[in-house]
Design a protein that fits this description.
Layout: E1 2-8, H1 13-22, E2 28-35, H2 41-49, E3 53-55, H3 58-63, H4 66-74, E4 78-81, H5 90-95, E5 100-104, H6 119-127, E6 132-139, E7 149-156, H7 163-187
Parallel strand pairs: 1-2, 1-4, 2-3, 4-5
Antiparallel strand pairs: 5-6, 6-7
Helix pairs in contact: 1-2, 1-7, 6-7
Bound molecules: 5-O-phosphono-beta-D-ribofuranosylamine.
The site of 5-O-phosphono-beta-D-ribofuranosylamine (GRF) has 13 residues, from helix 1, strand 5 and helix 7.
Length: 192
């Protein structure tokens, strides 16, 4: 049995999609969803989906080993950031080399880095008159959006698209590809 731990900060529609993808597959389990937002919608989704949803604060994440301790006890094969907005501390990155992945709603290295998240990304894509955008799934290192790229998928942007339209197209790509890439990564790994 392979175990995934998810981190999310907001709505969690990707979390829900990933959980649903793996429900009914006997070889992968979602051990927990961790969030840094006490009122994040993702916690409601966890309740509805009957999976563990845990909130932690800045102290637990950056100043003590609390979150690291939770991870140690869960022993995940893969840690998946799905709309998680805090930088991963260096000790966590070093403890889980090549085991933490993130999804970014654009074609990195473009439209990445600090402050480039959520609608800001899609608004920037629109403002610059891009004709395509997409998703990037990548390994996480100690810098925002800079780890090695695992997978990218593209979608067309037309001049009449609003930033919301672009966000919608990107979300569709995320729902289609993210669970499959997670599954692929897990099946390529030995159990720990
Ligand atoms: C997604 O667009 C993801 O690429 C980005 O944050 C968004 C999360 O959306 N990192 P949701 O919370 O899964 O709906």
């Amino acid at each position: 049995m392979k175990k995934i731990v998810l981190f999310a900060s907001g709505s969690g529609s990707n979390v829900e999609n990933i959980v649903q993808f793996f429900q009914g597959k006997s070889n992968v389990t979602i051990a927990a969803v961790l969030t840094n937002k006490r009122d994040a919608k993702v916690l409601d989704r966890c309740n509805n989906l009957k999976i563990n949803g845990l909130y932690f604060n800045r102290t637990a994440f950056y100043e003590t080993d609390c979150v690291l301790g939770i991870l140690e006890s869960l022993r995940p094969d893969l840690i998946v950031l799905a709309g998680f907005l805090w930088r991963i501390p260096l000790d966590m990155v070093q403890r889980y080399p090549d085991k933490i992945i993130n999804i970014h709603p654009a074609l990195l290295p473009d439209y990445g880095g600090k402050g480039m998240y959520g609608m800001r990304v899609h608004e920037a894509v629109k403002e610059n008159g891009e004709t395509e955008t997409g998703i990037t799934i990548h390994y996480v290192n100690e810098n925002y959006d800079e780890g090695a790229i695992i997978y990218q998928a593209k979608t067309e942007v037309v001049s009449t698209d609003t930033a919301e339209d672009i966000a919608h197209k990107v979300h569709q790509l995320e729902y289609e590809h993210f669970p499959k890439i997670i599954e692929k990564l897990l099946s390529a790994r030995a159990v720990h």
